[in-house]
Specification:
Blueprint: E1 11-20, E2 30-36, E3 41-50, E4 80-86, E5 94-101, E6 108-110, E7 115-123, E8 141-143, E9 150-159, E10 167-173, E11 182-183, E12 186-189, E13 197-202, E14 209-210, E15 214-217
Parallel strand pairs: 1-3, 2-4, 3-5, 4-6, 5-7, 6-8, 7-9, 8-10, 9-11, 9-12, 10-13
Antiparallel strand pairs: 12-15, 13-14
């Protein structure tokens, strides 16, 4: 629910793990894994995962989960739009140790004022195309265009575009006035399709990672 909360008695959300998809290969979906709509919330230790693998072979049965190609989640199955959504009324939210993986839209969206985040890891989805992801401008971390105050420390966005060549313009999107409020952000090309990668760290700033294992930082 929407409420301002209390700075002296904040709400705590901690040790939250969400998985969408698996062990069955299909039939699961959600729009957003975690929504924070109230202010003065402390979030600690989140792993929010659109699963990239499931049971080997046909969905169901008694087969164990596997990691080979027969168990890959492909083609946008088990869709999730966003991992974390911090709403417009959710001011003074603080997050520690947050990871979001493989959602099919922006992985994290932060719309509240005076947010602070300490360590964030995003891994972009493996199974998207340029049309469904790169050309739509999706990113690993997005601060709303209306936000005037935000701080983030140690934000990393990783890519492994396994199935298709996908070019993402930037790993992080934020109002230009807030770029300097990001401390030690970086992007990583893990592996994947040789014609894929990330163009910038934040907006138009920072180096690129294309085609081979590489890291780009913005100091």
């Amino acid at each position: 629910r929407n409420e301002s909360g209390s700075s002296s008695e904040p709400t705590f959300l901690y040790d939250i793990f969400a998985r969408v998809g698996g062990p069955e290969c299909r039939g699961m979906s959600v729009d957003v894994m975690v929504k924070i709509e109230s202010g003065n919330v402390v979030a600690d230790n989140f792993w929010l995962w659109r699963a990239d693998h499931c049971r080997a072979g046909e969905a169901g049965g008694d087969k164990a989960e596997a990691f080979g190609s027969e168990a890959w989640v492909k083609g946008g199955d088990n869709p999730v739009e966003t991992g974390v959504l911090v709403g417009r009324s959710a001011h003074n939210v603080v997050a520690y140790a947050m990871a979001v993986e493989h959602t099919l839209g922006d992985l994290l969206v932060w719309n509240g004022e005076r947010g602070r985040l300490y360590f964030y890891q995003a891994e972009l989805p493996y199974d998207v195309t340029q049309e469904t992801f790169g050309s739509k401008g999706y990113v690993g971390y997005r601060v709303g265009s209306h936000v005037t105050e935000h701080k983030a420390y140690g934000v990393g966005v990783y890519c492994f575009f396994r199935d298709y060549g996908v070019l993402v313009h930037t790993g992080i999107s934020a109002p230009s006035a807030l770029v300097k409020s990001f401390v030690s952000p970086f992007i990583v090309f893990l592996t994947g399709h040789p014609s894929s990668g990330i163009g910038h760290v934040i907006n138009e700033k920072g180096g690129s990672t294309f085609g081979k294992h590489s890291v780009a930082k913005l100091c």
